Amino acid sequence: MEQNMTFNQPILRYEHQELKETTDDYVTEFPITIMVNGEEFATIICSPKNLKELVLGFLASEGVIFKKSDLMQISIDDSKGFAHVELNKKINLKDNKFTQRMISSCCGKSRSFYFNNDALTAKISNSKIKIKPNQILSMMDQLQTESKIFQQTGGLHNAAISDGDMFYEHRADIGRHNALDKLYGYSIQEDIPVRNKVLIFSGRISSEILIKAAKIGVGVILSKSAPTNLAIEIANDLNITAIGFIRDGSFNVYSHPERLEID
């Protein structure tokens, strides 16, 4: 049984020149250690929901698995904070592209600069999707509407995957990478093709987020915030359309505008 995403605790609030006793909601921070074929692979600090999707998406993103059939079984023991993964193949976790590590919820370091397997698993997009301005604005509005725990606590990153029309799936986590891995894991688990899908993200488009999008395989990433210069360089190299500052009926297109369809 998954743990609660939030807790309510007493706090003191300073307001109108005095301290008052009240309560506040805040998000849960939860460590889960991933064991692959009986060996420890990584510990992820995350929000304790959709853990199976998180583990599946993380392993695919790290190049441990490449398809659903690589996986024999995932069992989650959230009472002890372990995910036990059995693969249909043997892998050498001591290979230099796999480094046992802790993935924190902090977003201060770009993993793209630290791990060589990013270069091995990031893909040049061959997406043929076309999206219209009204779809872009609508998808961002829907992400904002779905971000209920963020509105409650202010402590989560939110992400969604959509085709701009009928399909839409939302995930949230204290770690921005985790939110995207949950969507990736969901897509693998449900056999949903991602090539002609769009990622919608609540935070800035940094280089590691752009690389994560490339690993998933989408051709478009949307954000209400700004990109970094390195993210745009990578987006141009990997044929990904990056669109940011989506707010108040406007947005900026930073790379590969050919996917934008203006009536």
Element order, helices and strands?
EEEEHEEEHHHEEHEHEHEE
Rg on CA atoms, Å: 19 Å
Q: How many beta-strand segments?
A: 13
- List the strand order in the largest sheet: 9-8-10-11-12-13
Protein name: Sulfur carrier protein FdhD
Active site: 106 (cysteine persulfide intermediate)
Keywords: Cytoplasm, Molybdenum cofactor biosynthesis
Function: Required for formate dehydrogenase (FDH) activity. Acts as a sulfur carrier protein that transfers sulfur from IscS to the molybdenum cofactor prior to its insertion into FDH.
Primary descriptors:
6-stranded mixed beta sheet; alpha/beta; 13 strands; 263 residues; 5-stranded mixed beta sheet
Q: How would you describe this structure to a colleague?
A:
With 263 residues, the chain is of the alpha/beta class. The protein has seven helices and 13 strands. A hairpin with a 2-residue loop joins strand 12 (241-247) and strand 13 (250-253). The active site is at residue 106. Pfam families: FdhD-NarQ.
Give a quick precis of the structure:
The chain is an alpha/beta fold and 263 residues long. It is built from seven helices and 13 strands. The longest helix has 14 residues.
